[in-house]
Write a structure and sequence with these properties.
With 409 residues, the chain is α+β, with helices and mostly antiparallel strands. It has helices at residues 12-24, 41-49, 60-64, 71-77, 83-91, 112-125, 175-178, 237-245, 247-252, 269-282, 298-307, 321-332, 388-407, and strands at 4-8, 29-33, 54-55, 97-99, 104-107, 129-131, 136-142, 145-150, 155-158, 160-163, 184-190, 192-195, 208-216, 222-229, 233-235, 256-262, 334-339, 341-343, 349-354, 372-374. The strands form 5 sheets. The chain has a 7-stranded antiparallel beta sheet. A 5-stranded parallel beta sheet has the order 6-2-1-10-20, with helices on one face. Strand 4 (97-99) and strand 5 form a beta hairpin. Helix 1 (12-24) runs parallel beside helix 6, helix 1 (12-24) packs parallel to helix 13 (388-407) and helix 2 (41-49) packs antiparallel against helix 6. The longest helix has 20 residues, at 388-407. It is elongated. The chain starts with a strand and ends with a helix. It binds flavin-adenine dinucleotide. Flavin-adenine dinucleotide binds next to helix 1, helix 2 and helix 13.
């Protein structure tokens, strides 16, 4: 009698597992069970509707550094299915990916629908049965089989089970998985922007700096990159990366903390002091307001002069030491209080999930329950923005599929 696999969750990881398991073992009967009435909904909205499928990074060690949680785990899994395999997998199905300047990879059509269509077509091709509006409520491991109860009381049985149910914002939402004997790393949000309610800098919304450095006061957390001023506070890659690396620590502070911004990434305080000394000669007769010697956006330069109480009408040569000191400080270590967070274009991921120590990285099989597998964001793995979260979804689900296909022949 042919064996059966049930995959829980109709997202990127669930589809990739179902398709590849059915493809690698044509005798396996594969059913995908999705809670909602929609399939691949995150893939559809991902990457601003373009789907950032993976990242053009072809070095496993470098790639694994992009995961604030689970870096060591993914490093081991990438040996089995890496970015190159993702590109090739889609290329073999007539979906070419292109690389953007910052390394993000999108379908050449610039439409996430291309990825959705490809996955739906493959699922159909390999006879994956899809059951929608079916939420898995409880799972019972019984005599080498799983008994799965759906929210509408339907009962399903299967030999192999892959959980690809994505991240949940609350620990209690993992209860049905805890009942199987698994433990959970407490979920906290990752990839958010910083709110600075009432701060006057928000009037510069839309202004950005190409390469700034942002540090969290009282911690070692620091990131660099483009920084964007928004209506709420600060955003941009530097802030998003910081929110990911600091996800747990910042949740612990209830998202109230102080940051220090160096608007001039390349200068430390002493270098800036030296530069000010030379500027006093080089552009001595020019007014401070008119001459912005660091290439900062003019609106930001004007703001920093006012914020530092510098008389903008002064000439560089006449700038008093007190005013220069305040300006130097605000240029390279401008302190802000952050109070709260905003979700970045809803492109958040959840840090936390099934503890990685309970999953075998060779097979994605549970170390607690035989023939139970995990894939995607339900695991305690999350990456920064740039295609890293999908790559983990493709890698983990491919490995699970391969293991199940091999076990079930
Ligand atoms: C707006 C947005 C944009 C993003 N853009 C990108 C991007 O461009 N690149 C990138 O790498 N990452 C991106 N991400 C992150 C990425 O989408 C996720 O990491 C990825 O989708 C995780 O895939 P998954 O299959 O593990 O989970 P999901 O996509 O969340 O799928 C899980 C599925 O399981 C279902 N489910 C849950 N519980 C049950 C249950 N009990 N029974 C049955 N079904 C259940 C859910 O309804 C859902 O359909 C984005 C995220 C968001 C929110």
């Amino acid at each position: 009698m042919s064996k059966q696999l049930i995959v829980t969750g109709g997202g990127a990881a669930g589809f990739f597992c179902a398709i590849n398991a059915a493809r690698l073992n044509p005798l396996l009967k594969v059913t995908l069970v999705e809670k909602t009435g929609k399939l691949l909904s995150k893939v559809k909205v991902s990457g601003g509707g373009r789907c950032n499928v993976t990242h053009a990074c072809f070095d496993i060690v470098e790639m694994s550094k992009k995961y604030p949680r689970g870096g060591n785990f993914v490093k081991k899994t990438f040996h089995q299915f890496f970015t190159t395999d993702t590109i090739e997998w889609f290329r073999e199905r007539n979906v070419s990916l292109k690389e953007e300047k910052d390394g993000r990879m999108f379908p050449v059509t610039d439409s996430s629908q291309t990825i959705v269509d490809c996955l739906l077509k493959e699922a159909n091709k390999y006879g994956v049965e899809i059951v929608m509006n079916a939420e898995v409520k409880t799972i019972l491991a019984k005599e080498e089989k799983f008994e799965i109860q759906l929210s509408d009381s339907r009962l399903l049985t299967t030999d192999y089970l892959c959980i690809a149910s994505g991240g949940y914002p609350k620990s209690s939402m993992f209860d049905w998985l805890k009942e199987l004997g698994h433990s959970i790393e407490e979920p906290v949000p990752s990839l958010f922007t910083f709110n600075m309610p009432g701060h006057p800098i928000r009037e510069l919304m839309g202004v950005s700096v190409e390469n700034a450095r942002v540090k969290i006061v009282g911690s070692k957390l620091e990131q660099e990159g483009p920084l964007l001023i928004t209506h709420w506070g600060l955003s941009g890659p530097a802030v998003l990366k910081l929110s990911a690396w600091g996800a747990r620590e910042l949740a612990g502070s209830n998202w109230h903390f102080a940051i220090i911004v160096n608007w001039l990434h390349d200068f430390n305080e002493q270098q800036l002091r030296d530069r000010f000394q030379t500027l006093r000669f080089e552009i001595a007769a020019q007014k401070v307001a008119n001459k912005n010697p660091f290439g900062l956006p003019n609106r930001l330069w004007e703001f920093l002069l006012t914020y530092s109480e510098v008389n903008a009408e002064r000439r560089w040569t006449d700038l008093p030491a007190k005013e220069a000191n305040r300006l130097i400080k605000n240029l390279c270590s401008c302190e802000f209080d952050v109070k709260g967070k905003t979700t970045f274009k809803e492109e958040f991921v959840t840090a936390g999930g099934i503890k990685l120590s309970e999953i075998d990285h060779h097979s994605m099989m549970s170390k607690k329950v035989p023939n139970l597998f995990f894939a995607g964001e339900v695991m305690d793995v999350d990456g920064v923005t740039g295609g890293f979260n999908f790559q983990h979804a493709w890698t983990s689900s491919f490995i699970a599929a391969k293991s199940i296909a091999a076990l079930s022949v």
